[in-house]
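Recall the central idea of this unit: under ordinary conditions, the amino acid sequence of a chain determines the structure it adopts. In this exercise we apply that idea directly, starting from the sequence alone.
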Amino acid sequence: MNKKFIILLSSVLFLLIQPQIEAQTQSAVNGKAGPVKTKVAIIPISCAVESDQYLTVSSKTVATTLDLVLRMSGLYDVIIDNADISENMAGYCEKSGIPNLIYGKSYYTDSGEIVFELSVYNMEKGKETITKKETAATVLDVFDTADTLALSLAESFSGMKMTFGKVKLISIGDKGAFRVRIGESVTVPESELMERVLTGKRDIEIVQDRMFGPYTVVTWPIEIKENATEDVVFFIPGFTDKEGELIRKKEAEIEKNLGSFFKKSGREKALELYNELIEKDLALTSYSSSAADKKQELIDKRDELAALLK
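Accordingly, the structure predicted from this sequence is:
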């Protein structure tokens, strides 16, 4: 592992964390509740060789790590901006209203090491408040250190306890796609185990995109402990009450119109309702297997009816 690179990321985090601590302390003195979020913009690190896959991926890892950590902490208002700052940091900060700007570049040395240069510009001070140049011996050093050890090193600078725990997502009920929101961080988990979650008391939200839009399956208050695994159990419904009611109502209308099968208006209305359910109400079915099954059932019935009407 490359300790110099860890220190580079830690230094950047410390510079952002320090004014946040001061802001929260002042807020407590003034009797104001809640943290004051510090605005931060992360400009993706520019690569000396854009076509180099390893350089590009490792550079993105640095930015992704910083973004994830700052968002998950719930203390920062973070944006990723692809803006061309063209050395005009003051102009960017003034125009965007964002007081802190992280940017940098990466390139190879003659010996094949990866060099990262990261800088933080602070609008209030009107200058780069930190600039570091460090190296990672291999791409694997970046992946191993960027998202696991940056915070543990940062705490020695900031005085804040920032470590990782794990969350095991236990989904019962139906099978469906979901995303996890922790603070300002939103993740689509690749497995049931989230291995990099900041320690502390947090609200974990399980959210789905469903028939009527975003749907919160559960909000789970939890305390993440260092090196420990916490279970989050949630139930994904095949259909919510509102979704099921809409489907039953339209299926009843279809049956009513099919009762007038020998009337053209009845047949056309039934087909119209089938298409409305299939193409509009059940256009999205990834949220539950029940939705996918119902959609296929309706398609089969519609096609059967259409064949009879030819």
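The longest helix spans residues 3-29.
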